[in-house]
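Quick one: structure for this chain?
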Amino acid sequence: MTSILIVEDDAAIATPLVRAIEREGFDVHHVTRGADALSAARNDVDLVLLDLTLPDVDGLDVCRSMRDRDNWLPIVILTARSEESDVVTGLDAGADDYVTKPFRLAELLARMRVRLRLATPRSATVQDVRVDPTAHRAWQGDRELELTPKEFDLLALLVTDAGRVVSRQRIMHDIWDEHYYGSTRTLDMHISSLRKKLGDDSNHPRLISTVRGVGFRFETG
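Got it. Here's what it folds into:
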């Protein structure tokens, strides 16, 4: 499951933001201090939303420390500092994107998805299925799966978020694109094909379950 670290000491902003991002299917960890952010970032975090005005340390120093430690971790600064010089300083400190408050939630989520897509992906293994996004290869046990590009992207998304329902809307947005307005029947066809290649019975699925009216879930066991 994709993990988001929110570093924000203003509860009026943090509380609804945590709820909104969790509704998108992400695992969210929230801290209010820079020191706690640096400690939390040592764990399996996929993206950081970082406020600059923190009670113990300047967020820019936190950003620099995170970037020095991990060259690939996506960092999105979320701050009220809106001067051009502030934006330049934030990006120079190692941030990948800079969003000023007040912000529109839909735009922030879109920027997060972009940064997650551009980040160096990590391999993942669930049950007997392993995907390696960097090599663009997938295996079931010792057998390498022969997948089309879309089938691979779909499998990688489901395995990465294993145990959680991935909505149809998110799949269409992430794997096709945000401007795709066609029928989601193409998604059903890809799911069917993927199940066949995995030997998964659609009537009694062991791997990919359908959550009617919502989306699909890759089972953890």
